[in-house]
Amino acid sequence: MQTTFTAEQLATPRIAEANTILRKCVHCGFCTATCPTYVLLGDELDSPRGRIYLIKNMLESGEAATEQTVKHVDRCLSCLSCMTTCPSGVNYMHLIDEARAHVEETYTRPLFERLLRDVLAFTMPRPRLFRLSLIAAKLASPLRPVAESFGATRIAALLGLVPKTMPAPERFGAPGTYPAMGEKKGRVALLMGCVQSVLDPGINAATLRLLTRLGYEVVVSGEETCCGSLTHHMGKETDALTRVRGSIDQWTDANVDAVIITASGCGTTIKDYGHMLRLDPAYAEKAEAISAKAKDVTEFLAQLDLPETKMALRLAYHSACSMQHGQKIRNEPLTLLRRAGFEVMEVPEGYLCCGSAGTYNILQPEIATRLRDRKVANIESLQPQAIATGNIGCITQIGTGTSIPILHTIELLDWAYGGPKPPKLDGHA
User: What is the arithmetic mean of pLDDT over 349-370?
Assistant: First the structure.
């Protein structure tokens, strides 16, 4: 793609990087076939290729983002399926990140939308505040039909995502160091996360149980909460990078062999810390070191040669976009589950997003619901006894559309290798 940035613009590192990315695009359109929004809407501007044109024009002009550009940039899920498909190696992830930052800096959104985004950005990365906000939302959930009748679709979507029962805070996972059982094989840090630690704390508990049983000392700092992903994908770079630096400091001081992540969306961001802080002389080297140590829990376990077991349960495996496209982790979860004895089936149209995408299912509820329903239909066509996946967003999103129990892969592996049966399976298996 030909670009026309001025020499002055190219002197800015962010613009120089965007220029390099844009010039790799050859307009082939391969990305359109696997883009969820294009598949649903059929609008070229809702494809990666179309968005690339809009972003190019926006950045070249150096002016404020237009309403049209914002609409189509906002509709991007950041599923990164286009990067898996692209034959030219276009780094769409970094380009859309730059576009969102530019939108956030230059575009004034309508008041309600601005307030909603600010509330989400303030509450969700803070577990205690997020929990309180969920309790408040649960009390307000009977008003969901009223919100829908007045066209307040985003409020209705938010209320629809509130869990039917709020899980109690998991005591097993409090800040501290959890000793290895038996011979110590290594020392790792575990990201407890912000949303996951509130919505499904059992995931962290299962991870701690399994890692310590396998001989790993696990550090839970208690200082880092959000990895920065939530606000990063909203274009709020100042907030995101502050959280990134805080996480890096904690994990650097912990002196661990690996940073274990159980939410694949977080993993994609943490593995990009080196790039995000490449221009920060105080953090560039430390950020690269942490990115190199970051491992999805299945990626880490796949290196350990776990024994074969026999678990009589038929699973549909949903590969989160951030897992298969963001981190390029495709076979490890399947291999681990099958080695544990589960019957594992891959979901048709597995490359398409379920519609969660961080805050997307709140901010773009209509598209998110259509994607969820399509995903659920594909899952249910397999008639599984349970669903396995590796991301809390997918668990929450898919769980609102089906009665089939959905679990994190680590919960199933913990059960297979000596842990308790997940309560979600009671009455199902």
Answer: 93
The closest of 164, 147, 166 to 156, measured between CA atoms, is: 147
Give the DSSP H or E segment for 368. helix 365-380
Check if 176-301 and 314-425 are the same fold.
Answer: yes
Domain boundaries, the chain: 7-106, 111-160, 176-301, 314-425
149-169, pLDDT tens digit by residue?
A: 766 788 887 777 777 777 777
Instruction: Report the C-alpha gap between 306 and 200 in whole angstroms.
Output: 25
In CATH, what number does 176-301 get?
3.40.50
Structure tokens belonging to residue 298: 């299945």
CATH top-level class of 7-106 = mainly alpha
> 314-425 in CATH: which number?
3.40.50
Rounded CA gap, 82 and 87, in Å? 10
What six digits make up the tokens of 253? Answer: 């001081």
The tokens describing 344, both together, are 């594992």
Rounded to whole angstroms, the Cα distance separating 428 from 220 reads 33
- Positive or negative, the CA dihedral 230, 209, 198, 154 is positive
Torsion of CA 236, 239, 242, 247, to 10 degrees: -90
| Burial (CB count within 10 angstroms: exposed 0-12, middle 13-18, buried 19+), residue 195 | buried
Cα dihedral 255, 257, 259, 261 sign: negative
pLDDT of 429 above 70:
no
Return d(Cα 87, Cα 97) in angstroms, integer: 21
Q: What was the pLDDT predicted at 171?
A: 65
For residue 396, the tally of other CB atoms under 10 A from its CB is: 20
State the chain's mean pLDDT as an integer.
Answer: 92
Q: What 3-state DSSP class applies to 346?
A: strand
207-258 pLDDT per residue, tens? 999 999 999 999 998 665 689 999 999 999 999 999 999 999 999 999 999 9
- Longest alpha-carbon distance in the chain: 66
pLDDT reading at 393 higher than 80: yes
Alpha-carbon gap, residue 138 to 1, rounded angstroms: 49
